[in-house]
Amino acid sequence: MEYQDILKEINESVNNLLKQYKQLFTKEEVLFMKKLQFQAKKHNFTSYEEIKNYEIHFRPFFARVWALELTDPNDFKVGNNFKFVITCPTVAASKFSLDNKHFVSASLITEKHLGTFNKINYGLICNVDENNLMSISADDSNTICESSSDDFHSKKYFYTATTQSGRKLYNKKYINSLKLPNQIGLEMVKKNIVENGDFIVQKNKQVYSDITLDPHSTKFLGVVLFEPYTQHDYEEAHVLAEKFNLKIYSIPTDLYHDKISIAHVVKEQHIYNISDLNTIEYILKHYTDLMQEYSNLMFNYIGDSIIIKDSNGIGKLSINTSLQDMIIIINDDTRYFKIDFSKNLDNNYFYQIDSDLVDRKTFETELKSSMKDNIEENKYIK
């Protein structure tokens, strides 16, 4: 990849982070990120390692999202949605240890994606935070540690991170590690559909991500055991649980497959009526989660705005993440309906039709009337 292409991808990732999770950061942290981006525009990058060092400045902010989004094993209930990052031992459980490891290779699993390295049927749930996250890849990153003999790896591999012990890690290709959990999860789902025809598979080609962690600050939070399992899987999982004093969490693959499979999802498509104000306000609160749902809503980013359309085609919602307002645009109605949530305290929204502030009831009445008129006008249009 060319330097400018990588820089563009890094900056797009940072902009996406701020659009979705700006509330996680202080004003000083947001200004720090913006300042770095501004300085990068003026800087002449001359090596991949220099670009990676620029990227690494943003990594702690992405790690904060991972720490927030991952499921606490204590809150896990079979059948519910979840996000875990797990590492699967490639040696006998009795011999597994982090003592001599320079890095930990782990994978993101969710209720829609259960792929692990080499189809290993059990693994250790890892924490992910600002101290141990080193790189994120939707593919096997083939990470290696630097050799003490010469700079062989730095010539043939791309620098990706430095461990707490000072060892440099390299990959076979440049990896932009500024990815969010929902991005990696969605990428896994897409690959499974393309390569295997469905979300969750057990017997076909395994699809998995590669989340590289620092062993010195990685903690094990539990043991995952996928059902159905063999006697060997069961014994190995219990050895790990006893060795690290952890609880075992069984994940029934068949249950999630039946719940999430494409055939089931099509039947269970969620329908949201954007002519209803209660639904609109629900979308406003939960649009980040709804992006991952199978529903009638279509999402698209345009600048600082998230444009949301539904299948009936009567209008769209435009959420401006910077101004913290939503504009409801209805076909053939020249007015604009705005919900201001910039000072939202206990759902205290401000409602506006054109330039006039109105109460919620007036807003809802006018909105319903306008939506109804548009539905009637488009009723016979094919």
List keywords for this structure.
alpha+beta; seven-stranded antiparallel β-sheet; 11 helices; 36% helix; single chain; 382 residues
Give an overview of the whole structure.
It is a single chain. With 382 residues, the protein is an alpha+beta fold. The protein is 36% helix and 22% strand. The chain has eleven helices and 17 strands. It has helices spanning 3-21, 27-42, 48-56, 59-69, 152-156, 181-196, 231-244, 253-260, 262-267, 277-290, 360-377; strands spanning 83-87, 104-110, 122-126, 133-137, 144-145, 158-162, 168-171, 210-213, 220-227, 248-252, 297-302, 305-310, 315-320, 325-330, 337-340, 350-353, 356-358. The protein has a seven-stranded mixed sheet. It has a seven-stranded antiparallel sheet with strand order 11-12-13-14-15-16-17, covered by helices on one side. The two termini are 45 Å apart. The model is unreliable at 375-382 (pLDDT under 50).
The side-by-side strand order for the widest beta sheet comes to 4-8-2-1-3-9-10
Sheet of most strands: 7 strands, mixed
Q: Over all CA atoms, what is the radius of gyration?
A: 24 Å
Q: Please, what is the average pLDDT?
A: 86
SSE arrangement:
Elements (H helix, E strand, L loop, with lengths): L2 H19 L5 H16 L5 H9 L2 H11 L13 E5 L16 E7 L11 E5 L6 E5 L6 E2 L6 H5 L1 E5 L5 E4 L9 H16 L13 E4 L6 E8 L3 H14 L3 E5 H8 L1 H6 L9 H14 L6 E6 L2 E6 L4 E6 L4 E6 L6 E4 L9 E4 L2 E3 L1 H18 L5
Parallel strand pairs: 9-10
Antiparallel strand pairs: 1-2, 1-3, 2-8, 3-9, 4-8, 5-7, 6-7, 11-12, 12-13, 13-14, 14-15, 15-16, 16-17
